[in-house]
Each structure stands twice: as structure tokens, then as C-alpha cells.
């Protein structure tokens, strides 16, 4: 890390940008420039300015400002691209929330989406129509539409037929001169044809240069029978005559170098309900490839994914519960295929399975799983495939760089191609290299993990890339990039693949669209033949908890502080590079400056819920890491609360009562004002519920049958349900739980000395381990006695507390005899079947708390909500950011996370529901919609 000051041109641009997007959305401080400059590639470029643009009008103004100042713009959605196309050393433009629009049309046959919508979110919205978008990259759970279109991403089932190029119906884009072209709008297109007649003529002339030369035309046609994202999509020049159609399709795969895409309309493809997947294992990589060729010709397969021997070995080290061959000693020549097929009916699916098995059984298969149809099993298979990059990268040496590439061989040369790759790895001394990929298309991904701080390794990599281009593109007529985009890593080799004439056409395309060179320079087209070995990312060793992070960005959609401060990968990238700085001289001053900024951006604004770990293929829990480095300043208070928790409860009740007496609105404004100056002062939310009434007396039953120990958690025994105008009177959560259990024929009762009992979560969060263990011991004694030493099940009424008691039991701090149900599981399997439900609520908004997702209860909570509502919609927010007490002490995390919810939630939904009192508190505060506990909702809907 070395801080570089802004030059005059970028200073001027930053000043103009301040007026366009506001000062809070322009970052010139080195700390944020470094953090936000991080992407998933092997390169480290630090932008001079970072801007967050929230709408198309702002983008247009930024384009004009860039031309005025002579600076370049790189647009970024997720930053999961692997080849450096979302890196910038000029201006990085990150897209904001207003680009999250999604509209389904024509009964699901079309979908209109903004560039910030995650691909998996589009498919989730399309699921009721049994449709999906065509592209299916392995990163679809994090990759956004902007990047999917910009890279013409394909994936495992997509092939060449259903990628963005072939499935985009219409597009809305901003060109270099600020003009907006919307191909859906006939008047807009007509006006564009007139205003840009010369532009369209030059585009037609470029087409004529290819069409009039039979050799070039045939070369383009042949190349695009394969997956190919090397250079611009010049197939548009032979596929279409209308220059508008040519323009539209050239934009696909142009990696932000020709203009800005603000919206697209996709034609969707069928999504079949009936699917089956199987692993088949070989001890010969060549035999494996021969099997692929036969499957492609003869079998009704949707996807065939290849894992080479080293990949199998590394996956086996990282993941449990896979087929046995993943755990055998390393055999470099072994390989396996993951196959998927699907059908409209179960009968059609079975017929396809029979046909596929008849094909691959002709080959020397050592072991196979057989086709599995259980969604839980097949999901585990495909989750493994989708997470291969970080999983395999986990096996790298400390400090090694990650270089992922993908090439395509014609199917007739697949066996020779795989052998050629392995020969190149051996020749250039990359023993760590692995091969995986979409074998059905001849699209092989490989991963290298060299130490790129070594000049020798850089030279080796340079020579390797030269020979790779010769072998893949020239000798076998393949593609140097199949789906990851050209980026910076392959830009110097585009001419080697395409030849001088077609490469000149591509250069002319760039000049036509971007005469001022303001769109993503050096990506796809470059004059720097050493670009691919320039500005390698260093990955310093810093902490074992974050060692395996390769900065892929899979974690980011789960982070509530994304857009506020830092995401998990940004926290990791800044921390480990900061720790590598010397602590003396100029570097020492830089460390002190960065460390100061990190306290808020890295530590204070981390919700520490660990939802990032659920998204991370190798389970990195950045929340746990941040907690480990967070200082503790409240030890004495925690000790007092831990030893006398009943007094802590009384203090909470007194504070909440006082706030209500003085007026919640007034207290919210007062505490918010004080919080700005004194960060330690918590903010009282506007939806703060009133203090709960005392727990009722529940006699201990004489019979064990149908008895339930009710552990009413401290938050629910001290605070009422949140209320709004629809309730005549507000009840306590425990009133609803007791009513619900009684309706179902259960006899609930409280443990003795429940007041002061706590699961210890507040102490765990505060890193007060002794106090946490003390409260756990007290709770263990209390629950053991109440449950007759494990004979009676225990119901816990707040999801975070349920998760905590399960964690305590796993650690041996709670007796293993205790029957501690996941609350959603007990409600769904034991309570609801005994109930008669009344008429349903029309429209309900469901929020799944972090704790429910981590405890495995998400699907069960959804089913419970569906018992009470005709239409249930999810918030699609993985972490609301309340994070225990963080919603009071750092309320901006909660506010930032929930800004993604519709502004009209109160009008759109009848009510909301969740399983965490603090989540409900934050959600109600920021939407105005009442969020109830699931128990309150079920009680209301049950007779």
C-alpha cells in the first residue's frame, strides 16, 4: 500500500461529482479508494476517485464530467469479474439502490431488470412462472445483471444458446455523448436513427468489411459456434443487418467499454421442476473427456461439469458429506463429472436418465452416485460446483495470488486440449494448477496459485500466457475466454486469437463508440502488451480467520453495511494490507491513518452476525474476525450485569418506561441528536414497544404428556409486541405463545426463577466470556430442573436466543439431555397440525432473521407464514443489521440495510412478521409497517 495523491484532472472531476451525486457519494480518501477498488480479479488497481451513482441521470452527468476533465470511468455492479474489467486507476463508478428495478412481463416470458439486480433474485422472482433467465454463471447468487450482460456470462446449463447475447430482447443504454437509446421505445429509436445517422452508417460499414470478405465471415461464424468472450462480439456484424440490432448486441459482452447499460429486457427460458444430478468418477482424465464427447452427441443432458484429480482432492479437504472418491489420496489423472438432466414430468425425467446411463456405461467408470432427485442432495452437489473457485483456492500457499482463467477447445479436440493444458502446467512449473469447468461446451476453467511477488514467477506466467494463446487459439482454434470476459488478462492476446484484420475491426468499434476514451480503458483493447503482468494483487498473511479469503465477493449481498462503510471482503482486504505496512516512517503514518478510519468503517459498522459465512463457500465468518479484533471497553459493566442480570432487566424496563412517559418521538430525536456527538449514547427507535406486563402464573403440570417448558427470553418477557393501528390492544409475546400452545392442546409452564435467566448472547457479543459461561451455567441448571432432566421439551420464543442455546449445547455448556427445539420446527411440526386456521391475511411481508437462517429454520418459517397469508413476500434481506444492540448503538447499519425495502411497504402489505424482537423493532421503525412475532400472527389466525 502506498498512498498516491489525486492529480489535477481528478480533483476537478471530484468537485463536479460532488455537485452531481452529493459529497457523501464521492470518495477521495485513500482508505475508501483502496477498499472500494477491490474486486475479484488478480489485479490491484486503486482508483483516484470513487463515485456512487444512484440513477441514470447521474450517470449521464458523470459521463459529461469525465469528458470535460479528461478522466476515465469504470462502472461496477458486484465486482465479481475475474479478469480485471471492474478495476480502475481513474474513476470507479459504483451503482446504487435505484438500479434495483425488476418487472415481470408476459406471464414470465419476459423480465425487465436494472443492472444492480442479482441474477439469482431474478430467477427467484420468475420461479412461480417456471421460468428463469438464460445465463447461469456459478456466481449467479452474487453476480448482478450489469456484470452478467457486460461479460456475456454463460455458466453451467447456458451454453451458447441461452446467454445474454441470444436472450436479450431490448436494452436501454447511455452512449458516450450522453444520448439514451431505449430499443423498446419506437419514437426513441426513430429519433436516434436521425440524430446518429452517421454513427449507424459507420457501424454498417464495419459490418460490410466482415460480410464482404468470405474468409473473415466464415472465421467469425466458426468461432461463435464455441463459447467465446474474447474481444467484442463481432458475430453481431454477421447476425444482423439493422444497425440498431448490431449496436444492441455489440453492447453485450463489451465489459463497460462502449457505454452504460441502465436496463435490459430478457426473454426467459423454461425452468423445469423435475431434475436429477449424478457424479461419475474416472481414474483416467482422457476417458472422462471421451465420455463427455459421447454425452454431448447422444444424451439429453443439461449440464456436464468436470473436476480434475487435484480439484477433487482439494474439495475433499474442504467439504464433508460428498461421495467417497472426494476423500481418496490424490491421483492427478483421476476426474469426475457432475451431470444434470431435467424434464417437464417425472416420467420424462426418468426416460432421460435411462438414456444418459446407457451412454456413459459404455465407458470405464470406476464409481457413480446414481441420479439423485432429492433437492437437498442435488443442491449440495451444485453448491460445491458453484463454490469451486474459493474452495480450490483455499489450498494455495500463504501469500499466493489466485489466477483463474477459462479457455474453450472445440469438442473434437477436448482430449488433446486437456493434455496440452496439463503439459503447459508442467513445463512452466505450476504444480498447484487445477482444471474444472463446463465440459459439455469444451469450456475448461483452470486455476493457478503462484507467488506473484517473485519476478521469476511473473516471468513464468508471462511465458505461459504466450504459449497458452498459441495452443488454444491458434493450434486448436479455440477461445482464450469462454465466459469470464476479456478483461485485462487477455486483452494483450485478443489479436493473437482473432488476427490483425478482425482485431482492427474491434479497435474501430471501440473508437466509434468511445472516441474520447473515457469508458474502461485498456479493457478488451489495449496497446500495453505487458498489461496482463502489471499491478498484481498482493495477499499478505494477516490472521488465520481470514487467510482463505480470495476477495471473490460472494459474501457481499448478505452484508447490511454494504453501501454504508465496508463489506466483508473490503474489511479483509484493507486489514491484511494495512497489517503488512511497517509501523515507522511514512508507512507508519499511513498505517495510523488507515487504522483510525478502520475503527468505524471496519469494526463499528460490522453487524457481526456472520451471515457472510453462509454465503462464503469456505465459511469465512468476517463477523467473528471483527469481533476478535474489536476492543472491549465495557468489562466492568458486563461483569455487573452478568452477576446480577435481574437488575439489568429492571434497568431496561425503567429506561423504556421513562422513554414512553417522556414521549418516544421526542426521545428518538433527543437521543439521535446526542448520538451524533457522543457515539456511546444509544438511539431510541420510534417503534420502541412498551414494557411487558408481569409473567402470568402457570402451574407446573402433574403429567409430562403434552407439557412444554416455556423459556420466555429476556427481550420478550420485558418488551411487548410492537403495535400499530390494527390492534385494539397490544399483548405481550408470552401471551400469544401461551394462547397458541393452549389452542394446540399443550400445557406450557415457566421454569422457576425465570427472572434473570439469560442465554448469554449479550455477553458473547461483548466478548465477556466469563459472564457468558456464568449465565449459561445458571440457565442450564434452570432448564434441567424445569424439564425434569430432559423429559419435557423446551420452547424458546426469540430466534437469536434459540440459536444461542443450540450453540451452547453444541459446546457442552448446556446439558445434551435438554430437548431444545428450533422454534419454527416445533411450531410447524407440533403446534400447527393441531390448529384450525381462520381466514387468511391477504398480503404479508416476511423477514427471516439471521439466526433462523443459521439455525436451519428459514423454510419452516416461510411455511408457517403461508399458513396465515394468501400471499407471502420476502424482504430478501439476509441481515437487517440490528445485530443485537447495534441497532441502538450504531443505528445507521439497520437503516442502511432496510433502505432496500419498498417505500410504500405500509400500504403494500397488511403486516409483517419475523421471529426476532429486535429485527421486528428495526423493521417497524424504518417501514412504518407493523412487524409481529410469528407466534402473534399464528395466534391471531388460529381458532
CATH superfamily of the domain at 275-478: FAD-linked oxidases, C-terminal domain
Q: Name the shape in a single word.
A: globular
- Percent of residues in helices: 40-55%
CATH architecture of the domain at 275-478: 3-Layer(aba) Sandwich
pLDDT averaged residue by residue: 94
The helix/strand class is alpha/beta
> Strands of the biggest beta sheet: in what spatial order?
15-12-14-13-17-18-16
How many E strands? 25
Strand content: 5-15%
Helix count equals 40
* Largest sheet: number of strands, sense, barrel closure: 7 strands, antiparallel
Computed over alpha carbons, the radius of gyration is 29 Å
Enumerate the spans where pLDDT stays under 50 for 5 or more consecutive residues. Answer: none
What do we call the CATH topology of the domain at 275-478? Vanillyl-alcohol Oxidase, Chain A, domain 3
How many angstroms separate the termini?
Answer: 65 Å
CATH class of the domain at 275-478: Alpha Beta
Description:
- This protein has 943 residues and is of the alpha/beta class.
- Among the domains are: 97-270, 2-Layer Sandwich (Uridine Diphospho-n-acetylenolpyruvylglucosamine Reductase, domain 3), CATH 3.30.465; 275-478, FAD-linked oxidases, C-terminal domain (Vanillyl-alcohol Oxidase, Chain A, domain 3, 3-Layer(aba) Sandwich); 543-623, no CATH class; 837-941, Rossmann fold.
- It is 43% helix and 13% strand.
- It has 40 helices and 25 strands.
- The strands form six sheets. Strands 15-12-14-13-17-18-16 form a seven-stranded antiparallel β-sheet. Strands 5-6-10-8-9 form a five-stranded antiparallel β-sheet. A four-stranded mixed β-sheet has the order 1-2-4-3, sandwiched between helices.
- Helix 1 (8-21) packs antiparallel against helix 3 (56-69), helix 12 (285-298) packs across helix 14 and helix 17 runs antiparallel to helix 18 (455-475).
- The longest helix is centred in the middle third of the chain and has 21 residues, at 455-475.
- It is globular.
- The mean pLDDT is 94.
- InterPro entries: 4Fe4S_Fe-S-bd (IPR017896), 4Fe4S_Fe_S_CS (IPR017900), Cys_rich_dom (IPR004017), FAD-bd_oxidored_4_C (IPR004113), FAD-bd_PCMH (IPR016166), FAD-bd_PCMH-like_sf (IPR036318), FAD-bd_PCMH_sub1 (IPR016167), FAD-bd_PCMH_sub2 (IPR016169).
- Its EC number is 1.1.2.4.
- Its cofactor is FAD.
- Pfam families: CCG, FAD-oxidase_C, FAD_binding_4, Fer4_8.
Amino acid at each position: 500500500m502506498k498512498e498516491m495523491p489525486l492529480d489535477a484532472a481528478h480533483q476537478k472531476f471530484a468537485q463536479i461529482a460532488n455537485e452531481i451525486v452529493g459529497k457523501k457519494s464521492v470518495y477521495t480518501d485513500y482508505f475508501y479508494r483502496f477498499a472500494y477498488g477491490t474486486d475479484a480479479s488478480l489485479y490491484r488497481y486503486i482508483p483516484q476517485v470513487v463515485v456512487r451513482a444512484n440513477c441514470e441521470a447521474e450517470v449521464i452527468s458523470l459521463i459529461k464530467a469525465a469528458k470535460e476533465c479528461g478522466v476515465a470511468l469504470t462502472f461496477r455492479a458486484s465486482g465479481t469479474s475475474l479478469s480485471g474489467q471492474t478495476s480502475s486507476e481513474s474513476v470507479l463508478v459504483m451503482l446504487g439502490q435505484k438500479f434495483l428495478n425488476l418487472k415481470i412481463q408476459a406471464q414470465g416470458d419476459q423480465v425487465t431488470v436494472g443492472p444492480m439486480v442479482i441474477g439469482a433474485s431474478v430467477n427467484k422472482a420468475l420461479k412461480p412462472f417456471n421460468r428463469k433467465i438464460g445465463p447461469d454463471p456459478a456466481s449467479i447468487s452474487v453476480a448482478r445483471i450489469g456484470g452478467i450482460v457486460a461479460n456475456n456470462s454463460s455458466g453451467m446449463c447456458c451454453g451458447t444458446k441461452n446467454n445474454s447475447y441470444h436472450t436479450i430482447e431490448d436494452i436501454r443504454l447511455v452512449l458516450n455523448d450522453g444520448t439514451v437509446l431505449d430499443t423498446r421505445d419506437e419514437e426513441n429509436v426513430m429519433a436516434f436513427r436521425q440524430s446518429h445517422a452517421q454513427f449507424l452508417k459507420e457501424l454498417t460499414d464495419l459490418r460490410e468489411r466482415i460480410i464482404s470478405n468470405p474468409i473473415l465471415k466464415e472465421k467469425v461464424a466458426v468461432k461463435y459456434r464455441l463459447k467465446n468472450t474474447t474481444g467484442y462480439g463481432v458475430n453481431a456484424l454477421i447476425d444482423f443487418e439493422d444497425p440498431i440490432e448490431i449496436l444492441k448486441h455489440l453492447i453485450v459482452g463489451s465489459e463497460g467499454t462502449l457505454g452504460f447499460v441502465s436496463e435490459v429486457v430478457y426473454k426467459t427460458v423454461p425452468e423445469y421442476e423435475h431434475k436429477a444430478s449424478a457424479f461419475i468418477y474416472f481414474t483416467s482424465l482422457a476417458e472422462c473427456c471421451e465420455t463427455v464427447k459421447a454425452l454431448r452427441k447422444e444424451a439429453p443432458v443439461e449440464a456436464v461439469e468436470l473436476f480434475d484429480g487435484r480439484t477433487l482432492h482439494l474439495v475433499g479437504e474442504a467439504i464433508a458429506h460428498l461421495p467417497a472418491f472426494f476423500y481418496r489420496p490424490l491421483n492427478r489423472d483421476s476426474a469426475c463429472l457432475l451431470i444434470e438432466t431435467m424434464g417437464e414430468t417425472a416420467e420424462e425425467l426418468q426416460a432421460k436418465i435411462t438414456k444418459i446411463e446407457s451412454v456413459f456405461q459404455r465407458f470405464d467408470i470406476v464409481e457413480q452416485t446414481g441420479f439423485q432427485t432429492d433437492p437437498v442432495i442435488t443442491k449440495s452437489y451444485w453448491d460445491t460446483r458453484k463454490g469451486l473457485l474459493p474452495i480450490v483456492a483455499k489450498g494455495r500457499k500463504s501469500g499466493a495470488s489466485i489466477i483463474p482463467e477459462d479457455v474453450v477447445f472445440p469438442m473434437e479436440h477436448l482430449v488433446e486440449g486437456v493434455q496440452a493444458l496439463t503439459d503447459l502446467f508442467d513445463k512452466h512449473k505450476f504444480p498447484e494448477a487445477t482444471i474444472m469447468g463446463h465440459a459439455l461446451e469444451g469450456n475448461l476453467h483452470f486455476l493457478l496459485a503462484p507467488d506473484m511477488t517473485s519476478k521469476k514467477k511473473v516471468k513464468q506466467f508471462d511465458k505461459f500466457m504466450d504459449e497458452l494463446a498459441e495452443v488454444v487459439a491458434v493450434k486448436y482454434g479455440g477461445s482464450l475466454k469462454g465466459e469470464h470476459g476479456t478483461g485485462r488478462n487477455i486483452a494483450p492476446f485478443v489479436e493473437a486469437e482473432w488476427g490483425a484484420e478482425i482485431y482492427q475491426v474491434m479497435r474501430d468499434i471501440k473508437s466509434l463508440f468511445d472516441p474520447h476514451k473515457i469508458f474502461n480503458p485498456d479493457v478488451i483493447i489495449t496497446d500495453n502488451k505487458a498489461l496482463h503482468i502489471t499491478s498484481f494483487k498482493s495477499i499478505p498473511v494477516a490472521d488465520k480467520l481470514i487467510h482463505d479469503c480470495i476477495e471473490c465477493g460472494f459474501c457481499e449481498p448478505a452484508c447490511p453495511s454494504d453501501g454504508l462503510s465496508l463489506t466483508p471482503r473490503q474489511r479483509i482486504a484493507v486489514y491484511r494490507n494495512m497489517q503488512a505496512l511497517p509501523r515507522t516512517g511514512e508507512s507508519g503514518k499511513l498505517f495510523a491513518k488507515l487504522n483510525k478510519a478502520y475503527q468505524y468503517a471496519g469494526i463499528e459498522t460490522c453487524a457481526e452476525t456472520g451471515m457472510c459465512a453462509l454465503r462464503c463457500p469456505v465459511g469465512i465468518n468476517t463477523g467473528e474476525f471483527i469481533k476478535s479484533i474489536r476492543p472491549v471497553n465495557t468489562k466492568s459493566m458486563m461483569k455487573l450485569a452478568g452477576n446480577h442480570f435481574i437488575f439489568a432487566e429492571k434497568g431496561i424496563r425503567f429506561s423504556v418506561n421513562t422513554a414512553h412517559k417522556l414521549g418516544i418521538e421526542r426521545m428518538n430525536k433527543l437521543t439521535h441528536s446526542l448520538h451524533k456527538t457522543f457515539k456511546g449514547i444509544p438511539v431510541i427507535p420510534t417503534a420502541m414497544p412498551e414494557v411487558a406486563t408481569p409473567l402470568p402464573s402457570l402451574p407446573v403440570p402433574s403429567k409430562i404428556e403434552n407439557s412444554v417448558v416455556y423459556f420466555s427470553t429476556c427481550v420478550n418477557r420485558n418488551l411487548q409486541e410492537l403495535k400499530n393501528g390494527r390492534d385494539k390492544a397490544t399483548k405481550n409475546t408470552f401471551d400469544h405463545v401461551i394462547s397458541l400452545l393452549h389452542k394446540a392442546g399443550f400445557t406450557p409452564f415457566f421454569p422457576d426463577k425465570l427472572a434473570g435467566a439469560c442465554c448469554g448472547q449479550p455477553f458473547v457479543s461483548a466478548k465477556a466470556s466469563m459472564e457468558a459461561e456464568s449465565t449459561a451455567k445458571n440457565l442450564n441448571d434452570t432448564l434441567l430442573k424445569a424439564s425434569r432432566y430432559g423429559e419435557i421439551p423446551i420452547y424458546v420464543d426469540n430466534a437469536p436466543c434459540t440459536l444461542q442455546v443450540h450453540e451452547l449445547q453444541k459446546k457442552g455448556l448446556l446439558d445434551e439431555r435438554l430437548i431444545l427445539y428450533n422454534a419454527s420446527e416445533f411450531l410447524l411440526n407440533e403446534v400447527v397440525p393441531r390448529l384450525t386456521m381462520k381466514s387468511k391475511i391477504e398480503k404479508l411481508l416476511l423477514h427471516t432473521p439471521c439466526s433462523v437462517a443459521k439455525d436451519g429454520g428459514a423454510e419452516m418459517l416461510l411455511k408457517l407464514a403461508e399458513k396465515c397469508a394468501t400471499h407471502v413476500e420476502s424482504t430478501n434481506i439476509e441481515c437487517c443489521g440490528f445485530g443485537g444492540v447495534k441497532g441502538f448503538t450504531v443505528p445507521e447499519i439497520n437503516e442502511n440495510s432496510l433502505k432496500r425495502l419498498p417505500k410504500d411497504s405500509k400500504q403494500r402489505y397488511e403486516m409483517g412478521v419475523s421471529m426476532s424482537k429486535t429485527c421486528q423493532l428495526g423493521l417497524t421503525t424504518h417501514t412504518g409497517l407493523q412487524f409481529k412475532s410469528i407466534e402473534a400472527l399464528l395466534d391471531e389466525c388460529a381458532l
